[in-house]
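Dear H.,

Thanks for agreeing to be a second pair of eyes. The structure we're designing against is below in token form, covering all 146 positions.
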């Protein structure tokens, strides 16, 4: 299973973890869509600055920003997401399934183990990566993730 790390605003992370939000929209000009069944780890930025949970990728829709917005609008996504994907050549909507909330692990705690670590906006977290092995695996175990 592929793992990804996604930096996201805290309010959207909370909406995904609570199940209120079912789709995560992303600009897709320079990133490949995650395959269905992948795991997306959520890093809530701004004042939270913590790894907060995960979801499993369901369907992934890729298209123009207008096509993706038409899909998202029917699923109750807020209008500010439309502005976020506007201007990109390609956008994607990632269906979030089976969200799991973690005990938060803050950026300062992560940097104690991995000095200088900075979370990517959205990127792969390969097997053996220190964040995956030292931080996320134990969080998943504590949360009872499969």
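And this is the sequence the design step returned. I haven't edited it by hand at all.
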């Amino acid at each position: 299973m592929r793992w990804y790390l996604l930096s996201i605003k805290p309010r959207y992370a909370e909406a995904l973890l609570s199940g209120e939000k079912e789709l995560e929209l992303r600009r897709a000009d320079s990133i490949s869509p995650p395959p269905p069944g992948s795991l997306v780890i959520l890093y809530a930025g701004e004042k939270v600055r913590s790894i907060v949970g995960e979801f499993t990728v369901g369907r992934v829709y890729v298209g123009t920003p207008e096509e993706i917005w038409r899909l998202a609008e029917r699923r109750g996504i807020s209008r500010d997401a439309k502005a976020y994907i506007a201007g990109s050549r390609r956008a994607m909507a990632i269906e979030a399934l089976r969200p799991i909330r973690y005990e938060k692990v803050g950026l300062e705690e992560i940097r104690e183990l991995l000095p200088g670590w900075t979370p990517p906006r959205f990127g792969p977290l390969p097997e053996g990566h220190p964040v995956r092995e030292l931080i996320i695996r134990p969080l998943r175990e504590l949360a009872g993730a499969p």
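Two observations from my side: The mean pLDDT is 94. The first helix runs from residue 10 to 18.

Warmly,
E.
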